[in-house]
């Protein structure tokens, strides 16, 4: 069962400039054309599954194919036997089905498309990283989160509590997720919370979803 496609933003700086990171933000679903989704299913996902069965190692679980869209179609960059991160933080809030039931169905070989339903809304994630990331990380910077998060979720990726104070404790520190009826609304809500977070020197991109916004303006 295919999950909705999502798009990560890999580089540390806006406009896809700078060193690669573990991911600085995500939008979901990414609006692929039906023919692109079908090509991913029939030329990439299904052959991978069939090949593992032929080799005597059928797979049950989550496969995460990282793809690049090219002029000659989607191309595989990597495949992981896990959720992507921070793709997971964007996708799971859209899942309407019971994740435990899906996992059990996978393990028992009875997964069917009707067991996996996603909301028709959109999701966006903005990651806040520590100063120096990705070359290094700065630990111990005090962080203050807003009391009201406007229905968003703040995931703690690299934080700790020292003397009762929330501090940075890694490279990617926080991931702010929001849902909306449209992708624009989800992005706006996520940044509304990001702007209320007190985290000195935090690095984050202001252009999550920029490709779609520029495409819509060009149209």
What can you tell me about this protein's structure?
With 219 residues, the chain is α+β, with helices and mostly antiparallel strands. The protein is built from 5 helices and 13 strands. It has helices at residues 34-54, 87-91, 99-107, 183-194, 210-218, and strands at 7-8, 11-13, 17-20, 25-28, 64-70, 73-80, 122-129, 143-144, 153-156, 159-162, 165-168, 172-180, 198-199. A hairpin with a 3-residue loop joins strand 2 and strand 3 (17-20). The longest helix has 21 residues, at 34-54. The chain starts with 6 loop residues before the first strand and ends with a helix.
Q: Could you give a quick summary of the protein structure above?
A:
The chain has 219 residues and is an alpha+beta fold. It is built from five helices and 13 strands.
